[in-house]
């Protein structure tokens, strides 16, 4: 059975950084992959020409979607303040995700880890878990959290709040496609040794791979899994 996949992210580029290889895997398997974001990803920056930056980020996200093969649900994307989602009522974010949920009726959901350093990530993760709270007559099977270098790894961990991947996907054959999609977001990629650099993201994939006897992998934490 082909699956419908919904990816809920805070910013356009999180989908590629967090699960670009996994997206390619789903697409190869003929699954339908959809994605929504909640902020434009650049609004918090103190540049004079923000509109140009916002438009360029959207163009970059469209290019990345074409490379990886997923579809943005732009009509369902949010326009919340970048790096300011802690000021937004959670219910407003939940309602957007619920609208996408109703349209897509996904089997698998990917989102941020609930304890990332970035506040937007944390809000989106909480809203996703709320939108997909267990109810009767649901069809979704599992919710997985991905890691975002420079946020998941930069968090100040407390007991039981650390990202603990327990689900891994071999992305060796998808790495070049993920790398190309990452390069579509060239303004968001940092210089090494930042963990958000191309080299840093590749090293992370090799580290996750070596943990599992693979060359390269993406790691996820299963937040909820239901066998119906």
List the helices and strands and how they pair.
Elements: E1 4-9, H1 14-28, E2 32-37, H2 50-68, E3 71-72, H3 90-104, E4 108-112, H4 119-131, E5 142-146, E6 167-170, H5 175-184, H6 198-210, E7 217-225
Parallel strand pairs: 1-2, 1-4, 2-3, 4-5
Antiparallel strand pairs: 5-7, 6-7
Note down, in words, how this protein is organized.
This protein has 228 residues and is of the alpha/beta class. Helices cover 37% and strands 16% of the residues. The protein contains six helices and seven strands, in the order βαβαβαβαββααβ. A seven-stranded mixed β-sheet has the order 3-2-1-4-5-7-6, with helices on both faces. α1 runs antiparallel to α5 and α3 crosses α4. The longest helix has 19 residues, at 50-68. The chain is globular. The model has no long low-confidence stretch (mean pLDDT 94).
Order of helices and strands: EHEHEHEHEEHHE
The helix content is: 25-40%
Strand proportion? 15-25%
Most strands sheet: 7 strands, mixed
Structural class: alpha/beta
- Rounded to an integer in angstroms, the radius of gyration calculated over CA atoms is 16 Å
Please tally the β strands and state the result: 7
Q: How large is the count of helical segments?
A: 6
Spans of at least 5 consecutive residues whose pLDDT stays below 50 are: none
What is the average of the pLDDT values? 94
Q: How far apart lie the N and C ends?
A: 15 Å
Note the overall shape. Answer: globular
* Strands ordered across the widest β-sheet: 3-2-1-4-5-7-6
